[in-house]
Amino acid sequence: GMEKGNHVAILMSHSPEWVINYFAVIKAGGVAVLLSSMLKAPELNSLLRDSDAKILLTEKKFSQMLSAVLPGIPLLRQVLEVEGDSYKIMVAGSSAASPDVDIDDEDEATIMYTSGVLGKQKGVVHTHASLLGTPDIVSAGIRRGREDMVIDPVSFFYLLGLSEVLFGSLIKGCTVVIIPHFTPRAVLEAIERERGSGRVYQGSSFCRLNL
Predict the structure, then answer these.
(1) Tens digits of per-residue pLDDT, 191-211?
(2) Domain residues for 192?
C-alpha cells in the first residue's frame, strides 16, 4: 500500500483514467510524479531513478519499454497496469470513503519534470497550495463557469495541461473533454460534437488548426 509522502510515478496516456489515478494519489497524501508518455527508455530510466518513486501506475502499451528499464530501478517496489488484474483487485477492495490522512497546504503533491532543453531534466515540486493557487493566476481574465465545456488536447504532465486546463476547469465547475491524441481533425470534430465553449492549445498546435 501507499503511505503519505510516497512518490508515485504516473506513466499513462492522456485519458480520464490518468485524472482518476492522479487525484487518487494526491488525495491519499502521495506525491504524484508526472512522466511524459513520449519518454524513451534512457530518459525514463533517468527520471525514475531521480524521482525516488516507489510505485508506478502505467498501461500495457508501455510494458515492453518498462521490461528493459525496471531491473535498474531498485527503489521501485510495485508496478500497476490499469488494465491488469492486480489493479482491478486493488480498486475492487478499496473503500469509497476519503482516506484518513492529514494533508497540509504546504505538503508536496506533485513533481513535474522540465523539458531539459538547457540540459538535464529537473523535477519541480508543487505543493497542494501551489496547485490550487496557480490556476487563478494563469487563468486571469479567462471567464469560465459551470456551463462551459473545455476541449483539451494538452497532456496533463505539462504545467499548462495540469494547472490551466484540469485544475482551472474543475475549480470553476467546467466540463473537460479529453482528446487522447492531438490532430487538427480530432480537435475540430470535438468542438463541433461537444459544442465546446473554451479551447486550450499550445502555440504550434493552434497554428495547425488553421483557424
Answers:
(1) 888 876 666 655 555 555 555
(2) 139-209
